Amino acid sequence: MKVCIYGAASAKVDKKYIEDCEELGRMLGERGHSMVFGAGSSGLMGATARGFKAAGAHIKGVIPRFFEENGYESIFYEADELVFTETMAERKSIMEDSCDAFVVVPGGIGTFEEFFQILTLKQLGRHKKAIAVYNSNGYYDWLDKMLAAIMKKGFVNEECAKLYKTLGTREEVIEYIENYSSDDIEWSMLKKT
Length: 193
Prior knowledge:
By secondary structure, the protein is α/β, with parallel strands linked by helices. The protein contains seven helices and seven strands. About 40% of the residues lie in helices and about 15% in strands. A seven-stranded parallel sheet has the order 4-3-2-1-5-6-7, with helices on both faces. The radius of gyration is 16 Å and the shape is globular.
């Protein structure tokens, strides 16, 4: 399975997140999965890629050319395949189309944006892929609470809660994406007001 990983590029994060995500990547790679990601070599992106690499798994990195030109982010040149794009939108589109499942590890603004984009696309029926949110060290404790609150207020259909799953261990993430089925989702209900 090709697993798209979204996560922090920052190397300033606590080492516990870096170690945890590197181990997640190694475990996924050892189970025969490959990685699609934003091609960053630092932070949780780089950590997860190092884990996949240690397991001998295939890695596809996708990054806008201006990141390299402007030095915005160090690039994981050890990827088996590197795709350079002109825009962020093109980067995200290639990553979305290249994978079979999504795993969201802790991250910042870019990670939130990627998560909400794939969640929105799933709500609109543009894909039916698993979306696992890895709640490493309780990082995403607030996410389910926030989404439940806006569902309760009627801003989002409650059926949307089935579109992703927040999981607390690496093992749960792997089990979820490997056994995922979208059969329990009432697709016709997702956009009903």
